[in-house]
Design brief:
The complex is a heterotrimer of chains A (430), B (439) and C (256). By secondary structure, chain A is mostly helical. Chain A has 17 helices and four strands. In chain A, strands 1-2 form a two-stranded antiparallel sheet. In chain A, strands 3-4 form a two-stranded antiparallel ribbon. In chain A, helix 10 packs across helix 11, helix 13 crosses helix 14 and helix 15 crosses helix 16. A two-stranded antiparallel sheet of chain B has the order 1-2. Classes of the chains: A mainly alpha (430), B mainly alpha (439), C alpha/beta (256).
Chain lengths: 430, 439, 256
Amino acid sequence: MTAAISNLSLHASDWWTIGTAAVCGVACGVPGVYLVLRRMSMLGDAISHAILPGLAAAFLFFGTRDVLAMLAGAMATGMLTAWLSAGVARLGKVPEDAAMGVVFTSLFALGVLLITLGSRNVDLDPGCVLYGLIDAVALDTRDVLGVAVPRSFLILSVFAVLNVSLVGVFYKELKIVSFDSALASALGFRSGVVHYTLLAMIAATCVASFEAVGSILVVAMLIVPGATAYLLTDRLSRMLVIAAVVACVAAFAGHLLALATGAAVAGAVSVALGGLFAGAALFSPRYGVVARALRRAALALRIRREDALANLYRAHEGRAAETRRAPGLLDHVAAWALRRQGLVVAKDGVSALTDAGLARARTLIRSHRLWETYLAERVGLPADHLHDPAHRVEHFITDELRGELAGDVGTDVDPQGREIPPDRRAEGEP
Amino acid sequence: MSDFLRLITLQDPNTRVVLLGVALLGAVCGVVGAFAVLRRRALVGDAVAHASLPGVCAAYFVVGDRNFAAFLLGALVFGLLAVLCITLIRNHTRIKEDAAIGTVLSVFFGLGIGMSRMIQNDPAGSRAGLDGFLFGKAAGMVRQDVLLIAGVATAALLLVVILYKELKLLCFDREFAGSLGRRVVLLDLALMTLICLCTVIGLPAVGAVLVVALLIVPAAAARFWSERLVLILLVAGAFGALSGTVGASVSALYAHVSAGPAVALAAAVVFVVSLLLAPRRGVVADIVRRWALRRKILIENFLRAMYELDELASGGAANPALALKRTWTAAQLERAISLAERRRLVRREGGRVTLTESGTRRASDVVRAHRLWELYLIDQASIAPDHVDRDADQIEHVLPPEVLARLDERLRSEGRMPGAAVPASPHSWERAEAGRALG
Amino acid sequence: MPHAQPEAPAIEVHDLTVAYHRKPVLWDVDTAIPRGRLVAVVGPNGAGKSTLLKAVLGLVPLASGWVQVFGRDLRDARSLVAYVPQRESVDWDFPVSALDVVTMGRYGRLGWIRRPARSDTEAALASLDQVGMKAFAHRQISQLSGGQQQRVFIARALVQDAALYLMDEPFAGVDAATERAIVELLRAMRAQGRTVVAVHHDLQSVPDYFDYVVMLNMRLVAAGPVASVFTRENLQKTYGGRLTLLDEAAEAVRKA
């Protein structure tokens, strides 16, 4: 496959296809971020299906593919979907997701039927509704400053610019309505107006994208870039940028995939989006599955290391080790890591703490005994129930928390009468 | 026309088999869909349906020919894979369920669209007939296909019958099911598998894009007609079968109409009829009920006003047009009088209106309810007497008799109802006025 | 009543810590609840009251510790335990009748697949009668008032004929008559030797309704007979603000 791709040379028409998919992705992906944040992704799916009858009706009624007429018709049915879903849910006491399902499947079916009935004399067919004509965008061009630019690219660029500027201008309003629409209303923002404006934007963008890329890629472009961005950042402004970038990358990668395999471009771009999403889900630095598994493993290892240190400290104090389980693989790794870090040295086959190790172990034991004391004094646990809880929590006590605990318990002897090792750093030692 | 006759008289054996198969398919989709809707999993069905398309394509790549059973198996595998992906994304990332469904739906379907183009470009592949899997081609199915579908549908239906009790518990009260030691995750998986089976056998007949309509719409429509789960399941099954056969027939009659849209539209008609005309939950019934209540309130308010006029004037027919003009508009009053007259509650002689015997009875009941409620509000809710009238106005028309009896008993036991059927009004001015008038 | 290990307390909770998304919400609870008592679980919002019940039922994973019911692992004692979830936790527009809901209480002993028999329906009717709801047996549940819905939930627990009843806010949003009726029922259950543990919000009525109290605020503040434990001092400890260091430690565990 890599060989196949490297053998490909991209012609101008390929670049127009990629460009069209990319501007479509920006136009859909940016408002789509708000759908994902507001947990309304499926409304995007519903609208992108339900604009079909509006499109078809305008088409049959006016008999042309006049953009404005189709836009008006489709926006009307797109908004109608949201309104009807809410109405059916309220009037019929139907669960909201089912109400949406009823409305958009019915409208979509109506649209397909209208197209089938009208398609005997015009060139629209149901299949093209799904995957569009993106493979052939370069065939229908307009002359712009002497360059033949595909019509779809022009239209979608206009929408991309329009959507991005709308989001820019109403950034604050969209943010507050998405975060807390009750608060927004209390502050005097018209949540309903913002909501329906967003839906109108999405419906209009769906119409514009429809012919070029088909409904399936519209849904993918509405939801997946936003979802991917949500895995990568916590900041709304960055989410918007990342969503746009994800859409563009998917357009490029998807087209290459299509060229290499002979798959439909709309489908291949969706798959590329899926790949990017999966990549983010697995490898996102903060929220990725792999990153979290690694963090969990590192935590487990740290706990074993700290347990080993604490046991050595207790031995150093002349007390018995308090771990009862047999050492496993992780313990051996932990012991190795401690030696590498120079916290522990092996003397005559017996491990002993170095000075650095002693300092670390002392901090840990301090955490342990402070927590035991806190549990005994504030939570009121009996003396024989202190060790296990403290053993679990000692690894999570931060410097700050340790300071607060010390202030709170105000003693340097734990409930069993053992010394709570003092904080050497507070006394000026390293 | 002769086509139509041939169709409805089921002369063609293949038509007979196809319609029977589609009816069975619709029935099982309706039944399973009812659980999906009640468990709030309606849109997962949509994702599963879309996601099964690449499964069909993959099966073609593996088997290499139009093998119906392999297609369905591929679809089932990918449908279950989609459910797995949605669950994994929801449980192990910060993505919420809606975006998980949308992502899986669009990516899997995109994969399917991409693969189907590859098959079409393959010279041998154009015969694969994959187009039917998008929008459905019920009439194109052959006997063996239908038998397979019918077999799977029967198995799914059987599974529902076996697990009926558990599914009901799962949909109503998950936590309680857990407290009984039921493995809720397994039950959810069983429901998801049922949804997958339904969408998969719906693919060839109805198509991936709209098979979810057969799952959701009849089920949502059935909810309007009953308050009992068993009946809802039966009605949903019947609606599903009806939508399926009607849609498939239309598609068979008009070659260029796909079965999917036809079935979905048939189901939509059933839904709209249910939404409007269902006897209790329907919109029309609701409007009629509200309208009747408004009329009842108008009449009862008028009767109460008449009764209270009588109390003040100690008998003697009143001229309501004069006495009530401060609080009633002329049109309201005229409508109330004519409604009451038609029910023989009042008699009209010239400008004077008097309560008939049955009118007096009804009026005293209304006044009694009103005043009992007023007293209750003043006593228990400590609302000032001059605010009580308005609150009592809303409630008195809908107070059930057992509540009235309780109020009556309570006031009597506290010695606040000195024997009379109708307690005196708590409004002091009224009482004083009445006292003077009775003088 | 089903068989229970003699002597063992109704519930024994040992060093129980429960965490949601790793963040502990209930710390190191260690207590035993004796049999045959009416037990109130009290504490401010977010104190972990419902969590404690769910932990006993095995509905939430335990971060540490263990729970025993009548001296046995919960898996072997399911039939001894009945649960009344919060009323808001279910969809009351669900198409079932009051009788259907109560019959669900028999599903535990019916096991998978088997259908409720006539005897199950009769038992369900009898327990509806006990809560004064027999006349409403065939009403759809959305047509019942809040108090009536709660009675139906309690009837469902009664029909389980358990030894231990865990109730999550049985008095929330019910009318005065229902509250009195429920209290009568609880007393009757105690007289039969059953144990009832209820999350309760109205502190005023604790001494009237209950004889044993568990006071929670992210950790166990006190547990024991109402007469000795339900004191001003313990109430002050329970409701007088949270232990901020516990909150901070919980946050530290979540972030690690």
